Amino acid sequence: MPVPLLDLKRDVVAHRDEYLSAIARVVDSGTFILGPEVEAFEAAFASFLGAKHCVCVNNGTSALYAAYLALGIGPGDEVIVPANTFIATAEAASMTGATPVFVDIDSATHHLDVQDLDRVVTPRTKVVAVVHLFGMAADVAVVKAWADPRGIVVVEDTAQAHGAILADGQKAGTAGAIGCFSFYPTKNLGAFGEGGAAVTDDDALAERLRAIRAHGATTQNRHETFGTNLRMEAFQGALLGVRLLRLAAAAERRRSIAARYRAGLAGIPVALPPDVGARHVFHLFVVTTDRRDALKEHLASRGIGSAIHYPTACPDQPVYASRGIAGTCPNATAAAARILSLPMFAEMTDVEVDEVIDGVRSFFLA
Questions:
Q1: What mean pLDDT comes out for the span 17-41?
Q2: What is the pLDDT of residues 291-322, one digit of tens each?
Q3: Do the domain assignments include residue 359?
Q4: Cβ contact 177:202 at 8 Å
Q5: Do 276 and 218 reside in the same domain of the chain?
Q6: Residue 235 pLDDT exceeds 90
Q7: Pick the residue with more confidence: 219 or 120?
Q8: Pick from 244, 269, 284: which residue ends a domain?
Q9: Closest Cα to residue 339, out of 287, 299, 298, 293?
Q10: pTM
Q11: Do β-strands 222-223 and 217-219 pair in parallel, antiparallel, or remain unpaired?
Q12: Would you say residue 58 lies in a domain?
């Protein structure tokens, strides 16, 4: 029985009329950039997270870029970035003229290794980016305990963790100075195209973020800061507003799928994501094995989708390895050769989950 890695059509088919109604509202309004639909989503998403401000932009990379700019990051500054993340976390720092500096990961959680921070910090370090990778809530408090006394700002990359809950009960994205979200279609809260947001409780940062997304304008034709065009389309705000209503239920379903995976894959030689109750939202379900490539081929032979997130650690990517930093984060380099993402989306059936479990078990128990 084939099982896709992800199937976006199932949600669209199930809620087609709601989406068409949201699109029609935008068409009838004649307002296609920002406007009431985006403002309504900003208010709803901020409320969902327990944040004071939500500033929507055109994609997740822009959210990070705007966050770094709002914090005054630029040439000569350094931003600490986990070595295992999507390259946008580092790329956005490079876009400001700053230098991303990579810290190794904890092999069990795949989050940044706090014990490695002292190795990479310098007097030029201004920000440390905490990535809630794979929808797993990272320990922001322990990073802040390291960063705050040093005057280093924490930015959360929450692109894969909409609604994940931190150990203290806060929502991921609300513990640092700014939390950055992606609404890429494959995300737990996905738009029908590109979208992103930066959230903060700081009034001044929110004002700067809104200016940055609109060419640095504080009022029409008055540009007091550097910015560019990062504005969200009204269509995306309207559609995200519809999807936000089902986000909590979708996260619960993802946790249910993860629990089924965890039970079904017990006793075989694969490392599974840690179980911490309701904290994680499982954007991905990532297993770790020394036989990753062979397992991937085996699953493909049975029509079961899988993927590698990510096959190359950031410091080993050619664009950054040219600085002579390849291999400086050995845990991340090793993980890149061993991690495999199994199918995970809220619309998966239990039968499909069991098919994946059977496929993985048949490989190891053959």
A1: 97
A2: 999 999 999 999 999 999 999 999 999 999 88
A3: yes
A4: yes
A5: no
A6: yes
A7: 120
A8: 244
A9: 287
A10: 0.96
A11: antiparallel
A12: yes
